[in-house]
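# nightly structure sweep
# worker-07 picked up a monomer target from the shared queue
# config: single-sequence mode, recycle default, output format = structure tokens
# input follows
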Amino acid sequence: MHADESLDVENVFAVTPHRWREAWEVRRCHHPPTITFDRPTRTLPVSVTGSYCALQCAHCGGRYLRHMRPIDDAAKPGALDGATSLLVSGGCDAAGRVPVLEHLETLRRLGDGRRLNWHLGLIDEATMRAVAPLADVVSFDVVGDADTAREVYGLDVGLDTYLETLRMMRRHARVVPHITVGLRAGRLSGEMAAVSALAAEGVEALVFIVLIPTEGTAFARCAPPAVEDVADVLLEARVRLPQARLTLGCMRPHGAYRQAVDEVAVRAGLNGVVNPTRVAERVAEELGLAIAWGNECCGLG
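# output follows
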């Protein structure tokens, strides 16, 4: 079931109903009957590289950097008025690292009185040590297999490399891993392996985002992952990580597809949804969940 097809979400729930019951029971036993809906209007995304990225990944091609505030602009007087937190990111170098070290003093100043969520890529421990005093949280993308990393990022790394980096980061800061469902041109490829590995690592929080086929990228003509595939990953995560806080993040397609995925996320027992549709609100109310609203990046929750 893809975005350009009729989305009968009831069919998704009709398949393997026992899995939906199991996931909801896990949520009921381990989490209070509340759900967080975030509209991150108070978090300003800042790019330390402007719109430049050496990798030009197949799903992004630097397009999403254009929606971030270049760090030089963010440093201008009044540029951060109203922002209570920053998402610090940028393009990667050829090794998949976001080059933040040369900007640490500027970011220290910009972060005064604000919370900072850092997106750093596959950085080394020396960089992590330098960033740690300024980090309220680090967001870290985990890719479940080497073929996906090679096809999407052009990097010769596998799940072991991501797990080693995650462990290193967790020695110094709070880390919230992210998994992109359908990252490999809309197909599942390593997501379940990533969920299993993160469960074994005992992570306390996990964010899911969904591939958005984006104009001007190598994946522009791909379909997003089938809603059934998204459901499979979220259900697996809820059961495998019973105590973790699971969130559906801001990056996912719009329209009827988004409404279907939002319903899937709430019924699968996730703890939060970013920029929820009215469908997410309605389903949460039907399920007896109290809604808590937030206005910052979900990783800071």
